[in-house]
Design brief:
Number of helices: 7
Structural class: alpha/beta
Oligomer: single chain
Number of strands: 6
Shape: globular
Strand content: 15-25%
Strand order of the largest sheet: 3-2-1-4-5-6
């Protein structure tokens, strides 16, 4: 069980934006769904919908069922758009560089970018898993801005010291790291470095 200091279950938000690497976000959701004392909210951007289906072979409804609550990215009246609705951790995985740019410049024109802005202004844990290569100087500046504002910037780069044998192993390693950065136990997904 995962509890806050006050004994309440954790509430987390996962955003999946329109970048390749949707399988990372889906795997994070699968693990979070197995944690009964974590309330999971999910936003999938419209551009991410087709990518999720293409890269994972799963339809949006099936992925949405992994969360306790699925929110339309255009639903700005959602409680996620307000600082008065406490969310303990948010991860945008994968996070397109376009979404990075919006968050870094304070553009909250969708529920996902507004929720990220709320996480920053409320000094809540925000993990941004950038998924792009190479990165332009503009992308690097935007990621630096997010880091300076308090976000944790992670790149979808699996380690190889654990000897991953499959793509799924590599996805698990990144997903495990994201879950750890959210402040949760990743279970067996994350293998620690042992020389």
């Amino acid at each position: 069980m995962v509890f806050q200091d006050d004994g309440k279950a954790m509430r987390v938000l996962v955003g999946i934006s329109g970048a390749s690497g949707a399988m990372y976000g889906v795997r994070v959701l699968e693990v979070l769904a197995s944690k009964p004392d974590v309330e999971v909210h999910l936003i999938i951007t419209p551009s991410a919908g087709a990518i999720v289906e293409d890269e994972t072979g799963r339809d949006i409804g099936e992925v949405a069922d992994l969360a306790d609550k699925f929110w339309d990215d255009g639903r700005m009246e959602s409680p996620l758009a307000s600082g008065s609705f406490p969310v303990d951790a948010m991860a945008v995985v994968p996070c397109s560089v376009s979404t990075v740019a919006k968050i870094a410049s304070g553009v909250g024109d969708t529920l996902l970018t507004r929720a990220a802005a709320v996480s920053l202004k409320e000094r809540r844990r925000l993990v941004v898993v950038a998924r792009e290569m190479p990165l332009s100087t503009i992308d690097l500046r935007n990621l630096t801005t997010l880091s300076e504002a308090g976000a944790v910037v992670a790149v979808a780069s699996p380690p190889f010291y654990t000897g991953p044998g499959t793509v799924e192993d590599m996805v698990d390693l990144v997903a495990g790291r994201v879950i750890t950065l959210m402040g949760l136990d990743p279970g067996p997904l994350l293998r620690r470095y042992e020389p």
